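Reopening: structure tokens for the magnesium ion complex, inputs below.
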Amino acid sequence: MDPMPHASPEETPPRPPDPAARDAHGGEVVIRVRDLVTHYGDRQILKNVSLDVHAGEILVIMGGSGSGKSTLLNHLLGLLRPTSGVIEVLGKDINTSKESELTEIRRKFGVAFQGGALFSSMNLLENIMLPLYEHTDLDRRTMEIMARMKMEVVSLSGFDDLMPAELSGGMIKRAALARAIVMDPRILFCDEPSAGLDPVVAANIDDLILDLRDATGMSVVVVTHELESAFKIADRICVLDKGKVLTIAPVDEVRANPDQRIQNLLNRRTEEEELDPEAYLRRLTGEKEP
Amino acid sequence: MTVDIAARGPATVAALSGEVDLECSPAVRRALLDALRDGRPVIVDLSLVSYIDSSGIASLVEAYQAARKQGTALMLAAVSPAALRVMQLARLDRVFNIRPTVDDALAVLAQ
Ligand SMILES: Nc1ncnc2c1ncn2[C@@H]1O[C@H](COP(=O)(O)OP(=O)(O)OP(=O)(O)O)[C@@H](O)[C@H]1O
Ligand SMILES: [Mg+2]
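Re-run output (same inputs, fresh job):
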């Protein structure tokens, strides 16, 4: 027999939102970045970056190598301190928050790191349970069932005992995703979730991210080079270029944007650098500047 | 969050209400495993649950497994659409015995 929902036909969000800022259109803002400036040494890396992440949206951050994507992501996670600017996550300014408050906010994050960041000495089940061990004191049975539920979600059911070294690239990405969602995060961060995977496996990961968002209403921030993936999953795309936000807009608007730098990125063309033949020859031969 | 245990006809009805999250799912787990002790069928009434997270659903899985092992019926009644979608992701909708209402679950038991 079909289960009959009892609630109103209008689907209610799975969780009452935290008191958070609202944007001009009235949508709930889960991350708010204003005029973020950051340096590595003397070099300015992010230049007045401002952006919002809305509740329930998938925001994809794109940009060429070295444009500052990972740096921005690390700021959103509170792992780096900016030179100036404001970063509010779930209504809290994470640059002025105490470590205990940061821990509280991070409990609502899930992060799937680029390389998976699995512990090689732990099997798959233990790796996926790890956040539960760190952040809760649930019964071990409960933790195991929670981890196995997420393993089923990412199609890794039954592989409890495999060690990370025994996993394929696609399995590692899916394991990282399972671990990132094991605590039912409000915000999921993914760094290159499908890079380096064959197209079918990559498409599966895209579908998975969409299904997860649809079922849970969480917000997702994805850093990716994969255009096809970005176009498929993104509600909005943020294009970074040399530390600046070129545009942040819905997918169709970004695709139609006439800015040459954006089109180059979308067409995988690298910008032709100005070449000074004399200087280049000196670089090649290791000669000093005259 | 509260768990209200009451006898109704041949069954024990465990009515959960409020948010079932990391903080209180251990209490839900204990209450359900306790409710199963006397061998009567258990109906978990979820109609007053505003939110249930994975730890809450995991507690339902454990109780369901314990019920099966001892040959007792355990049914979920009034699963919200949001909770159902999360269950569907992990294909738990194919595992649990889900009924629209407590009355419907009682009617099934009466057959
Ligand atoms: N720890 C560091 N110390 C000094 N400079 C750094 C450091 N990390 C990154 N950078 C510099 O900051 C700039 C932005 O780097 P970032 O890693 O954010 O780029 P990215 O967009 O993630 O690139 P990729 O696509 O290659 O991963 C680069 O010029 C890089 O050289
Ligand atoms: Mg990077």
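The pocket of magnesium ion (ligand 2) is lined by residues A 69-70 (CB under 6 Å). The first strand of chain A starts at residue 29 and ends at 40. Marking as resolved unless the reporter disagrees.
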